[in-house]
Amino acid sequence: MSSALLMVENLGIQFGGLKAVQNVELYMNQGELIGLIGPNGAGKTTTFNMLTGVYTPTEGKIMFDGKSIGGLDPYKVTRQGISRTFQNIRLFKELTVLDNVKVANHGLAKHNLISSIFRLPSHFNGEEKMEKESLAFLKIFGLDVYRDELAKNLPYGMQRRLEIARALAAAPKLLLLDEPAAGMNAKETHDLMELIAFIRKEFDLTILLIEHDMNLVMGICERIYVLDHGQLIASGTPAEIRSNPKVIEAYLGEEVTE
Ligand SMILES: Nc1ncnc2c1ncn2[C@@H]1O[C@H](COP(=O)(O)OP(=O)(O)OP(=O)(O)O)[C@@H](O)[C@H]1O
pTM value? Predict the structure, then answer.
């Protein structure tokens, strides 16, 4: 699979005596939407932290877009084209919705979608241009009506959307979503599912999704990797994962197989 966008080989990290992640092998082709699931403490967020430079792996290799990125500083990983959201929302709570996107606007101009829906006359200066681009971007996420609201005052589901919008403002090739549906009700989760499918298509994204909501994971992912106690115990299509006895025992439980 030399053409994979992301290729992870024998990835591992140890904290003191704890092997939090070991021997993880995974790949993602351009445009794929892949799930990463497993019980609490299985090593999912730790894997994200290694992919984004927060932790330096103690073993293994991470190749992204043909380059080795294991152990790079997080800002360099972002520059290579990987953005993420966090399990616990991390917005600039005291800034407006618009400013949250503006501070992350390193790459909006790179988005074809923005330039095609919003052709800016060349006389706009940098600041005006950034503001217009950021607004056009908010509109895609249904967040333009909240532009002047402080982020902390947004309804929860909208905060989650804003986090995704902000991650996308850096124009990533690979987007890592850490439990984006956590704390959402059924309607918000459904809307989020549609949003993920939409941005994937419109922004030509590759997405790795950590999520406990199995309807969401099974509903939109092409393939799924399953971690348990820091090790991969299965990978495959949603149908294969749903009927895998190891996965049922470690995570899904009997009822999901019905
Ligand atoms: N900085 C750290 N120092 C020590 N142990 C850590 C550190 N980061 C993670 N761990 C440990 O690594 C293991 C995996 O944790 P991780 O947060 O990756 O699990 P997870 O699969 O994301 O769980 P959850 O679904 O609850 O978010 C846990 O035992 C955790 O305590």
Answer: 0.89
